[in-house]
Structures are given as C-alpha cells and as structure tokens.
Write the structure tokens for this entry.
Amino acid sequence: MEGSQTVFISKCESYAEDTVSEIVRRHFDALGYDRSFFEGKRVVVKPNLVMKKAPDAAATTHPAVLGAVLSVLREYGVTPIIAESPGGIYNRQRLEGIYRTCGIESVASRYGAVLNFDTSAVQMPFPEGKKVKMFHVIAPVAEADVLIDLCKLKSHSLTKMSAAVKNLFGVIPGIEKFEMHASYPDYGDFGAMLCDLCEMLCRTKTVIAVTDAIVGMEGNGPTAGTPRKIGAVLTSPNPFACDLACEKLLGFEGTVPLVKEAKSRGLCPDRAEALKILGTPIAGAAVPDFKAPDSAERKAPSALTFFSSGTFGRFFMPRPVVIKDKCRGCGECVASCPKHTIELSAEKKNGTRTAHIRHASCIRCYCCQELCPFGAVKVKKNVILKIISSI
Ligand code: SF4
Ligand code: SF4
C-alpha cells in the first residue's frame, strides 16, 4: 500500500457475473495481482455483510461481485476464506443466517471457497497507532497474507460514507465493535481509530480494496437508506486512496472525517485529482445529487457556535428516535447500544413491547439505526436547529 495512490475505476452497469469477473481480472492484471503474486499465500476475502439483508437491499456486498473475485482467484489456483464479523453477536448461528440471506453461501459453494465459522480472535499490536495501540481482530483476517477488502459503497449515518476503510471495522469481533463506539464517541476520534485499524492491516498484509459501487446506498445508510445506481467497480492497493476516489465520486469531497484524517497522515493525497486513476476518470463515474444521511447535518449554525461543543454540541446533533408503530420489540437495538441507553417497555402494545431511548446518555453512534431489522429507528434533526436553519 505504501505510496500507492492508484485506483482502477471501471463503469459497470449490471451484476452480470461474467461482466464483473472481466472487470476484476483486468484490475488485478493491471495492479500486478497475478497467479505468481497469489502463489502460496493465504487469501481472505472480507465482504461487507453488516446484517441479514437480501442483496437487492444494497446494504451488503452483492454476491455477483464476490463471485467475480472468487472466479478470478480460482483461475489463479487460490482457495480463499470468506470472513466477516457482522454487526451484533459473532457466533456460528448468526453467520449461517447472514451468509444464506446475503446470497454468499451459494456463491462460496459454487467456487469452492471456504466460509469462516471460527469466531476466535487474535491480538494485533500497533504501537504507532494514534488512538489504538492493540487491536483484537478475527482470527482468519489476522492470519491472512492477502486481505481482499470487498466493500460496498454506501452513505453512513456515523461516518457519512462507508467504503474500503470503514468495511475493515468488520474485522473487530462482534460486540467489541460496540465497545469501540463507546470508547470513541467523537466522530473525529472514531475516524482516527478506523485509520489506525486500516493502517495496521496494510502494514501487516497486502490489502486489496475492491469496491462494489454498481448499486450503492444513499440516504440513511448503512442499512436504512435507499439503493442507488452508481455503476462502477473500483480496485486499489490502498484503501485510503480508494475512499478518496469514492468520496469525490459521490460528491462528498472534503466532508468524510476518516478521509480527512487519512489525508492529514499522508495516507492518501490531499485532493482526488492527485490520484493515479486507471480506466474511467472519476468525473466519468461520478453521480449527481447523491443523498447524504440525515445525520450529516451535525453542526449548530454559527449563531449557536458557542453551544456547539461538548454536551451542548451533542444536544444539537440529530438524534435516533424509535418509530413505535414499526418497532417489533425484537431487542436488537438494546443489545447493540454501546451506552446501554435503550430499553424495552414493560408493557405490551398490540402484543409487542417497544424500544425507548434515553437520549441523555446517547452518544449518537447510530448503531441502533444501523442494526434495527425493521427500519424502526429514524434519525431526526434537532427542532431548534431546524427552525434556525430555515430562517
Ligand atoms: S427499534 Fe428495531 S431493533 Fe429496536 S426493538 Fe424495535 S424493532 Fe427491534
Ligand atoms: S441510542 Fe442508538 S445512537 Fe444512541 S448510543 Fe445507543 S445505539 Fe448509539
């Protein structure tokens, strides 16, 4: 990754697996990932399987893109492991359900790839880390020589955009991710932690970022947004460079905290124009009016700057609200909240308990919105901010 600022972008209009395979093969050839590169190496493919959603929902890496990568790897004689620690509890039962629903199980079996069910984790030191000096990483990823970071391009309520760098948060085992949210409630700190994690992985193994941007997600991603056709596949030896290209492609340039952090560390150039783009130029793949998440408006207007930090700042940030009619009382948000600030009602309404958020302790990490299987958590803008913004 060191020093590489190359991103290969190809337009791709559909999930026809042959077409995507052709693109991935071309990208790998151009970037030097050929048979001899992979020989004797332990290869892990890490898709984005944030939760149990069908491929058409565009919340997870599409199985056709996984199939394309697996078909190229098979040509090179590689039998990869597919590994991911989705949101929530990391156990065999959850992995089985997610692999099946996301369409991963059938593709893996077609190409003879191995689905990971080993839920152990390994300590990986990173003394150079700015926020984190020791990570706990799922075993297959820790032991890999080559990690294919097979991400989905989406908007994201917490990080504004999810692509190659954010996808790697899924190497932290299960609910330890919630602890990381609790430890880094500040968005800048959270982005810095993600940069540490990605940097550590890039220093200990070859990371190849392959982005499924054929159909992405806009609005309230990473799971509650709307599918949006983008029509591209991006590959890079540098996840940070890949994210810089993605940021520009979505019209989010200069606004994604973790990309800002990567720039400040010299992990990618200051401007997307300084990237070495192979294939389609970014302008040729860019999408107009890509919707940011509702949470993107986090700052108080200048008139309220005095109050916009610390507790006051959090008060002004958009907050998660449970839509009672949609809530099924499943308790997923209760289990996912890093601050334990959600509880289910003692009383049932129409036979169902409903979730309630105590906003005083809420750190606005939006895990509840991300992991609610029924889309019952919405992010709402502060009313005072709304009125002042409209004046
Ligand atoms: S808000 Fe969503 S995750 Fe939470 S209990 Fe209701 S349905 Fe389940
Ligand atoms: S209520 Fe939701 S947004 Fe607030 S801390 Fe809990 S999971 Fe995060």
Summary: Residues 299-309 have pLDDT under 50 and may be disordered. Residues 320, 336-339, 341-342, 357, 362-368 surround iron/sulfur cluster (ligand 2) (CB under 6 Å). The chain is about 35% helix and 20% strand.
